[in-house]
Write a sequence for this structure.
């Protein structure tokens, strides 16, 4: 997959790029996801873009090679660039309910953001 020269910095950028490869700069973090009863069922890696939108890194539904919540503890709270295909929601199988959150899957690369 090509790296994609499209850079998504805002929710408006995301709307134009769904289904395509792109680069997403933002802050790497771990976000808790809860059930309807407000019980945390997983902590999962996300990148948060400058407008506050969180983007899931891969799906936690288990049908793809997911990311580990402890994958890159050295990057938590730091600016990164995530390269991959942007989806409107996480890939899932036909039996799973889904959540409304953008998702990069597959993730090709996560690197610390550098100033040009």
């Amino acid at each position: 997959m090509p790296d994609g020269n499209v850079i998504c910095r805002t929710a408006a950028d995301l709307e134009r790029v769904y289904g395509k490869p792109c680069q997403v700069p933002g802050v790497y973090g771990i976000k808790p996801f809860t059930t309807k009863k407000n019980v945390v069922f997983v902590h999962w890696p996300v990148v948060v873009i400058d407008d506050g939108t969180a983007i899931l890194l891969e799906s936690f539904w288990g049908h793809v090679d997911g990311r580990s919540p402890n994958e890159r503890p050295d990057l938590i709270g730091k600016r990164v660039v995530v390269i991959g295909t942007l989806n409107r929601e996480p890939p899932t199988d036909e039996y799973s309910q889904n959540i409304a959150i953008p998702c990069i899957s597959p993730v090709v690369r996560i690197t610390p953001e550098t100033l040009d």
Observations:
- The chain has a mean pLDDT of 82.
